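User: My instructor asked us to take a sequence, write out its structure as tokens, and then describe one feature of it. I'm not sure where to start. Here is the sequence I was given:
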Amino acid sequence: MGAENEIVVVAPDGAVVARWTLGARPPDLSAIDELARLRLCARRTGHTVKLHNPSTELCELLELTGLRLDDPG
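Assistant: Let's start with the prediction itself. The structure tokens for your sequence are:
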């Protein structure tokens, strides 16, 4: 299995452009803010943001804030 809370930015052709994790800290609203800003920037350039192995805590925060990321997997 990969790292928990791994963020992947994917180009329109399906190529992975960037990959990193949110870090060892438990996700909080600052992590949600970072994801929202990243998603906005990615969408403006035709890219998508995907999560791999999102933690239960991160999924709950995303649900609470209404931020849905493309194809969490």
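For the description part of your assignment, you could build on this observation: The chain has a mean pLDDT of 85. Try explaining in your own words what that tells you about the chain.
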